Amino acid sequence: METLDGVGPTIASKLRAAGFTTIEAIAVTPPMEIAEKTSIGLNTILKIQESARKMLSADFKTALEYYEQRKNMRRCTTGSKKLDEILGGGVETQAITEFIGEYGSGKTQICMMLSVTAQLPYERGGLEGRAVFIDTEGTFMPERIYQIASSLGIDPHEAASNILVARAYNSSHQCLLIDKLFTICPENNVKLVVVDSMISHFRGEYIGRETLSERQQKLNQYLHKLLRLAEAYNLAVVITNQVQANPAAFFGDPTRPAGGHIMAHACTHRVYLRKGNKGIRIARIIDSPYLPERECCFMITEKGITDAEEE
Ligand code: GTP
Ligand code: MG
Q1: What is the DSSP string of 184-238?
Q2: Which atom of ligand 1 is nearest to the CA of 279?
Q3: pTM, 2 dp
Q4: Atom 27 in ligand 1: which residue has the minimum CA distance?
């Protein structure tokens, strides 16, 4: 860190104390936020950030450089070939994938499955990395990780020790945990970050019309942090979201994703889940920049997420 222009021992220790322990974290955090947390002057911060971005070449990039970065993008298998296929080959790194659905539609199950498959070698559809699981609802089940890992033929003990779980007790705690990811992820080779659910605390705490814009601002800020995290460390971010009643729908689906336009715009890919007959689940890609709007079936079994059995 002392290699950055304008960073001496004093400033370095202020930055470290505030949790900014990597050059990436300094480069991607809004300057005002660093100023508030470190009491370093804004001008100094701007200078340090410029130098950090140069070091990471995070300023203007040529289209070629951008293309090179995209080439490093990897995909993580969900366990279901069909679901991977409509996702374009699996859950992408350098992007946020959002799973939306009613209770019991399989959001948490998919997240737990991915926390294990992310550890698999590339040739088995994994990301060869650890997973972080931010659990806001207390539904993360370690037993389930053991079960899924065994069925994939990997050491359940090892699989469980490669998942860093944090229970977020309220929305500000959730934000604090997300801030910490800028140091935790590079230090632990984290290749998948799960936030299950991104929005439940926000919906529960910000009640009433007058708090809505504050809530949306905060949500937006943290969704963008997650996206920068995904890009900076070439990792996959997966978040879940609930559905809410849509009073405007006379025909078609009477529900819509919570979080409004902010969620819709910040997430790279959105997958809508619903329950079908006999334990079948249906996934549908909705507003993705390049994935076609397709549907598929999958199942939740003891093994985790699998393809639906053909009739
Ligand atoms: P909420 O968080 O409540 O909104 O729901 P969710 O979308 O996260 O649902 P979740 O992923 O927790 O899915 C729960 C469903 O998965 C249960 O209703 C079961 O149908 C199914 N499920 C979970 N574990 C197993 C299992 O071991 N075997 C089978 N067959 N199904 C399971
Ligand atoms: Mg859940």
Answers
A1: HHHHTTEEEEEEETSSHHHHHHS-SGGGHHHHHHHHHHHHHHHHHHHHHTT-EEE
A2: 20
A3: 0.86
A4: 302
